[in-house]
């Protein structure tokens, strides 16, 4: 199929309209919004709790490692659902493709398990030392 530059015109128009709306809204709120400043208004407000202390207190790296590992393994699990749906369809129609898909999932799970074992051996999930 041969695309012409004019085929992309609707996409460019929509992109331009979206950018114009965003920029126009930001400018309008800046010009039309109230400009009253006071000590109480400019004070930091966080969920109804008064701010106390420094916001830059150190947080354990373990917390971030667990969060990143959760996201990593969670995304890997997301890949398994479409595989399972397609696998059930292939099992009913072709056994050769189903066997290849199953072996690929075994390799995938093996790599995932190897990563998980590595994380456990490194002690990333151990909170107390």
UniProtKB/TrEMBL annotation:
Entry EC no(s): 7.1.1.-
Residues passing through the membrane, by range? 12-32, 63-85, 97-120
Pfam family for this entry, one: Oxidored_q4
Gene Ontology MF terms: NADH dehydrogenase (quinone) (non-electrogenic) activity; NADH dehydrogenase (ubiquinone) activity; quinone binding
Q: Which EC class, in a word?
A: translocase
Name where it's found: Cell membrane; Membrane
Q: Which reaction does it catalyse?
A: a quinone + NADH + 5 H(+)(in) = a quinol + NAD(+) + 4 H(+)(out)
The UniProt keywords, alphabetically, are: Cell membrane, Membrane, NAD, Quinone, Translocase, Transmembrane, Transmembrane helix, Transport
The cellular component terms of Gene Ontology attached to this UniProt record, alphabetical and capped at eight, are:
NADH dehydrogenase complex; plasma membrane
User: Among its keywords, does the record have Signal?
Assistant: no
Its chief place of residence is membrane
What membrane topology is annotated for this entry? Multi-pass membrane protein
Q: Which family does it belong to?
A: Belongs to the complex I subunit 3 family.
Q: In UniProt terms, what function does this protein have?
A: NDH-1 shuttles electrons from NADH, via FMN and iron-sulfur (Fe-S) centers, to quinones in the respiratory chain. The immediate electron acceptor for the enzyme in this species is believed to be a menaquinone. Couples the redox reaction to proton translocation (for every two electrons transferred, four hydrogen ions are translocated across the cytoplasmic membrane), and thus conserves the redox energy in a proton gradient.
| Subunit (UniProt) | NDH-1 is composed of 14 different subunits. Subunits NuoA, H, J, K, L, M, N constitute the membrane sector of the complex.
* Name of the protein described by the UniProt record: NADH-quinone oxidoreductase subunit A
Origin species, per record, is Arcicella aurantiaca
């Amino acid at each position: 199929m041969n695309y012409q530059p004019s085929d992309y015109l609707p996409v460019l128009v929509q992109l331009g309209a979206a950018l114009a709306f965003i920029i126009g809204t930001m400018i309008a709120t800046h010009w039309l919004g109230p400009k009253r400043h006071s000590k109480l208004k400019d004070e930091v407000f966080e969920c109804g709790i008064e701010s106390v202390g420094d916001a830059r207190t150190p947080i354990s790296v373990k917390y971030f490692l667990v969060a990143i590992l959760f996201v990593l393994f969670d995304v890997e699990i997301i890949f398994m659902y479409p595989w399972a749906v397609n696998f059930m369809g292939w099992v009913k129609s072709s056994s050769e493709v189903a066997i290849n898909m199953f072996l690929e999932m075994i390799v995938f799970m093996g790599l995932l398990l190897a990563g998980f074992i590595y994380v456990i051996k490194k002690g990333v999930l151990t909170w107390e030392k």
